[in-house]
Description:
The complex is a heterodimer. Chain A has helices spanning about 5-30, 35-40, 65-80, 100-110, 145-155, 230-240, 255-260, 260-275, 285-290, 305-315, 320-330, 355-370, 390-400, 430-440, 445-450, 515-525, 535-540, 545-555, and strands at about 45, 50-55, 60-65, 80-85, 90-95, 125-130, 170, 185-190, 200-205, 215-225, 330, 335-340, 355, 375, 380-390, 415, 455-460, 475-480, 485-490, 500-505, 510. By secondary structure, chain A is an alpha+beta fold. Among the domains of chain A are: about 135-295, Sulfite Reductase Hemoprotein, domain 1 (2-Layer Sandwich), CATH 3.30.413.10; about 415-555, 2-Layer Sandwich (Sulfite Reductase Hemoprotein, domain 1), CATH 3.30.413.10. The model of chain A has no long low-confidence stretch (mean pLDDT about 95). Chain B is α+β, with helices and mostly antiparallel strands. Chain B has one domain (about 5-80). In chain B, about 20% of the residues lie in helices and about 35% in strands. Chain B starts with a strand and ends in a 10-residue tail after the last helix. The interface between A and B is medium-sized, with 36 and 25 residues.
Amino acid sequence: MYRYDAHDQQLVNERVAQFRDQVRRRLSGEISENEFKPLRLQNGLYMQLHAYMLRVAIPYGLLSTAQLRALALIARRYDRGYAHWSTRQNVQYNWPKLEDVPDILAELAAVEMHAIQTSGNCIRNTTADHLAGVARDELEDPRPYCEIIRQWSTFHPEFAFLPRKFKIAVTGSSSDRAAVRVHDIGLRIVEDPDGPGARGFEILVGGGLGRTPRIARRVRDFLPRRHLLSYLEAILRVYNQYGRRDNKYKARIKILVDALGVDEFRRQVEEEWEHIRDSALELTDEELARVSGFFASPAYEALESSDAMIQGWALGSDRAFGRWVAANTRLHKQPGYSVVMISCKARGKAPGDITADQMDGVAEIADAHGFGQVVVTHEQNLVLPDIKSSELHAVWRKLEALELAEPNVGRATDIIACPGLDYCNLANARSIPVAQEISESIDDYDYLHDLGELTLNISGCINACGHHHVGNIGILGIDKQGEEFYQLMLGGDAGEDAALGKIVGPAFQRDAIAGAVRTVLDLYLARRESADERFVDYYRRVGAKPFKELLYARS
Amino acid sequence: MTQQMVTGAATADGRPIYMKRDHTWTDRLADGHVTLDQDELARMLQSARGDEFVVCDPYVIEVLVDRARPQPASLREKIRASGGPTIAIAS
């Protein structure tokens, strides 16, 4: 993984010292909250319902075990013993005291981490496929490009005050696990159609969720990779100049693309790009090789394929282990190795929360059985990317002891949920209790696994941090005259066939939403053509009508 | 008319605090000053805004008073006043 050089470390250390002085001045009364607020936000420090919240950047979700242990230490020493994985591969602490935040940032700097650009109208953490570097369907590892984008965008003076926040995601695989079509810019690594072996990017712009959800529009079929930064800069320049600043709800780049139309937007970007395409922004082969060197594959042992063994376990007589293998492991590019998905969605727990002890335990497993790396997913889970398949049973046992072996990754109870009204200042309704109630209502693992691949996403307000628009089943909490209600959406998809869910009918009361979800699941199970027809495929085939008839016939 | 009080987030740690009759602050909503008097409320809010080294972003909330005990009218303020989320935190 990438290691800081002297410049990176100095930059982060200086920021810690700067913020320490700003906090001192705030607490001593030298500066007001109005003066302090933009400064704290530039360091990821929000004010939430009960306390400050600190969001820490995890570039493209990748952590060393030293970093994970530091996150555990911070949770234990400065917070309430736990942390929360966000839906953009970052980590959030819900209870820091203001006077402790400079010390927390110093702890982070000591392990090459920070909270810079995790808030504000700037380029945020670039996210990536959580199986980057190990996926079988990967054309090229996206992480070197993410790191190059991170270095280009960190403290970029021209883009420090954009019209609104800006999010970039990159994937190098045919399966889109990075949700690139619902980002401000989505990058797909593709082969050059005119030059076999040469690689570049498909450029998607103007995707996003929130109050105006949009699937990104294709701005370029192919961009040679040497032009990556100049083309990104051209897009950002057009957005920075013409994006709306008079209305924060119409300030994202998706609104600009809507207003101009994708053809005119493309024309303006290409025109801007002509001025800078052959500038110092060119990504040379030498620089790409230098950065790629940080992401070289670890020293795998030469092993026989374990695919048949894994399939045998998944269908074997040890049903507890078999269920876990089936749901929580993925085939690895390297023969004899597996990818382990760690569910942070134990039944009845808050989705994405993890205790300090669990973080330390995962770090121990990654050191003992892997190569000392852990990945955070935007679905609020963790990945152990390089586990020998022969050691899967031992890893499963250790995860069980940590209460991190819920066999539900990619299943209906692997619920993405924002913090909602339990923590968030912006929320209208609670998300976590709804997620808990749904997961507790699906108490039969055979039923859960029979449902198969299914995403269920919950947001507590229209800002859509829980990505409800792109859940196969999406739930949006709303406030109706002081009462929590929940809209139910069906048919969303964050993957390569990205789609926005459609509201199925009138919102449900708080005590009815879990039952409505169960009705939807039961109907799908009863009427699908076969177990191979996924929920989203069934919905695409039959539409909302049968669901609507059953859901509202009862009310 | 609904009664009202002034609240905000403590500068030190962001916890919810409530203004008392003497314009100092308390962690307990029940000890906050409740009023129907809009002029008094305006004076409280002005005082709170001048006290920003103790409190951030003060604002007015509606409360329902039952047997001399104020209760927040909205779910959001009920959750704030409860001191934490409505779910068990990870442990």
